[in-house]
Amino acid sequence: MNLKNKIVSATAGLLFGVGSLIAQTANTGEMVVTPGTQFSTVGDFNNTNTASFINDGEAFIYAHFNNEGVVDFTSTEQGYTRFQGNAVQQLSGESISYFYDILFDNTSSMTASFELSSEISVANEANFNEGIVKNDDFGGLIIFEDDADHTGVFDESHVDGVVKKNGDDSFIYPIGDAQLFRHAAISAPDDITDTFTAKYYFENPIGNIVDGETPTSSVAGVITLIDMAEFWTVTNDAGSSDVLLTLSWDESTTTPLAIAADPQTAIHIVRWDEAQQLWVDEGGLVDAANKTVSTPLQLDHYGIFTLGRVNEKIILPGDVVIYNGVTTNGDGINDYFFIDGIQNLANNNVQVFNRWGVKVFETNNYDSAGNVFAGFSEGRLTVAGDNKLPTGTYYYILSYDFSGNGPTERIKKASYLYLTAE
What we know:
The protein is mostly beta strands and 422 residues long. The chain contains one helix and 41 strands. The strands form seven sheets. It has a 15-stranded mixed β-sheet that branches. Strands 1-4-7-10-13-15-17-20 form an eight-stranded parallel β-sheet, with no helix packed on it.
């Protein structure tokens, strides 16, 4: 079958063989590209809401692609769909399109060779040969299924927008913004039903999430500097697994020189904590050769992340960070004695004393199930008939077991915290 320069209305049972070429297609029935055969359309392809398009062979799409019906492949076959245009290609439609292998190869635009307003699913591999797939302004989504991966990503070919990953394998997100590829990666989740979504923004996070704040007013503890040029969003959309997160930096294009400066071991991942209204340290294992930094422990919160620098001298073993300010005014900010990372370490114990050495609080397994010091005494000191403690300086003793890469040792830290009761 060799259909050239015609508008084709496909009917049920229409099969395409080697060399099938059409100018424009409105499919209203069933189209099947059988294994070992090819189908090409130099004009727009419209798969209507009554139609199905099954690609078990090789399909070449040279113009716009719209799917309102079924686009899929047979589970035992390995269809290959090639989007190769000479002008910007719109990938649209109300129905999700399922592809086995997919190629993006279009150099017509520096910002968006592919305008994705629909959802497309990749079962095996996406080859980002040339051209940016942009869904950021168009509302689309690209989904990588379990075991799916990608090749070829670089500054001129990636996804500018949201990417979703389903399944229990580790994954590098092929994401970027403003013609710059800046990936994030996750470790393997526990379950095949887990879903994580990521997006990169070459924008200042301040103003996007905490309008009117300054970098220094929204950080605490060991963090000394925040990357104000870029951020990532990573969300856990389905499942109960937690993952390690890896972010990348590139001081030649996006990352401020002050963030990437030596010593690079001070580069950490920081997360915007909505409840605390501040940036918190998620830790950092730095791979300077590949310009990446990873969290040392699995995340237990998701949302907005960027890079930061920390004062390495005040991080305790196990990446424990102590925030020594507590305000009990109920505004949701610093409402309790926050010890970042302590809940992940064994046999932890926290004691709090007033200035006269009277113990006002002690607990094991700190920061589990609301088990925190929030400015109330559990000792014999009471104020005004209740157990709310007055404003002032208090002292804490923190101890926990830490093994690291060697024998277990008992870590002990004693210092002060300042409580504001107003």
